[in-house]
Amino acid sequence: MEMNNDKKVYLFELDDVLYPKKDYVLQVYYLLSNFIEYTEGKPISKEVLQDLKEYYLEQGEKGNIDHIIAKYKLSKKIKENYERLFVNAQLPLKLELFPSAVLYIGDLLSKNKGVGVLTKGNPVGQLNKIRQVNWKGLDAYLKVYFADELRFRKLKPYLYIAEEFGVLPGEVEHITSKPILK
What we know:
The chain has 182 residues and is an alpha/beta fold. The chain is built from eight helices and six strands.
């Protein structure tokens, strides 16, 4: 997708736009598999991690934890811990931005464009991810907005953000797929 530069403000979705979401998911699975091994007292972390990874790559996130609970006959409480971990995980490695996103955001900033993140999903979980991204210094120039939080406050995200930047709503671009520079 070729990006145009005719807008005044550019908002980026987080997952799979600025960084590969699977990098977050697979690290959470790593943490979860170690937690399961610790709580179950059985050396199964490698098997559980491999199963979580294969299931995710073949079928996605939905149902993955239920599959693991059934396969390994784990306590249903593991699901609660998984959900909590998914939102609050402290990852072993920083999340790395796509190189094309770094270049594109840098280009926008050099042209004095407004730049931010507008992300959907659980605001606590998305903020946790944001804190674990290696922003390469770009975070000093980004404003962050949570679509679900704005809607909860009965605000229309694009109108609210346009007003914050002092532009018209039509001058705001929301990038929801990975930018590819040509």
